[in-house]
Design a protein that fits this description.
242 residues; alpha+beta; Alpha-Beta Plaits; 9 helices; globular
């Protein structure tokens, strides 16, 4: 089956995940802090070079996950490609990623914060740490106010995060609460389904508004053959007897 073209719409955030062809370390190994720090430095370079508004990010032993709004259709692909080239040249030879990265458009005002919580909670779900902010290679610390300046400078807060409060402390406290409570199983499945299917993470009215702006179909086609349409009145028998 032919692979789907990249899904893009102007000014719409994207949730992106690229898996490494070979993990940086096995679960039984020590955390590869030096390697993760190097990848973080390359990610910072790529974000600056391609002018991507990065709202959230995560580095794990086997993947990189981003939530970002690109300025155009090519910026995110180029960011991921530049990261792969730098990793291939500076860390390992051969293939860096296991395949094309997956991505989903994310509805602002509804799904941006859940997608951010899902991304930053992955280290807990995968048993790297017991609390999301305890994993140093993610944007979780930035969003709750426990961070250093170099990580803060890489993140461009989305408007949905700003809506969490009128002051930095209010926003951090509100987001800390969201991160602590996590997502429902249903919301997590919804996010994963959109990402791995490479569709839109949004409600039906949002999909309707995006029609005509996106670069391809926004949701999976209905299964099975199309339903037959009834013949219009007055058309029967126009061909005459055989």
């Amino acid at each position: 089956m032919a692979r789907l073209p990249r899904l893009y719409a102007p000014q719409i955030p994207q949730l992106v995940q690229a898996e490494f062809a070979q993990p940086l370390a096995l679960p039984s190994d020590a955390t590869p802090a030096d390697r993760l720090d190097r990848i973080l430095g390359w990610l910072q370079q790529g974000v600056s070079e391609h002018k991507v508004a990065l709202h959230g990010w995560l580095l794990l032993n086997d993947r990189i996950t981003l939530l970002a709004t690109p300025p155009d259709a090519q910026s995110l692909p180029r960011l991921v490609q530049s990261l792969g080239r730098r990793m291939a040249a500076g860390m390992r030879h051969g293939r860096v990623f296991s395949g094309r990265y997956r991505s989903a458009l994310v509805q602002p005002g509804h799904w941006v914060l859940p997608a951010l919580v899902w991304l930053e909670s992955l280290p807990v779900q995968l048993q790297y740490v017991d609390k999301a902010p305890n994993w140093p290679w993610s944007s979780a610390g930035v969003h709750i106010g426990a961070h250093d300046a170099r990580l803060d400078a890489m993140v461009t807060d989305h408007g949905d995060y700003w809506a969490c409060g009128n002051t930095p402390f209010a926003r951090q406290a509100r987001y800390r609460d969201l991160l602590h409570h996590g997502l429902s199983a249903q919301d997590s499945r919804r996010i994963q389904g959109a990402l791995f299917g490479q569709w839109v993470l949004g409600e039906s009215d949002f999909l309707t508004r995006l029609q005509g702006l996106a670069t391809r179909r926004l949701a999976p086609a209905a299964r099975g053959r199309p339903r037959k349409q009834p013949a219009e009145k007055g058309l029967e028998g126009l061909s005459g007897p055989a």
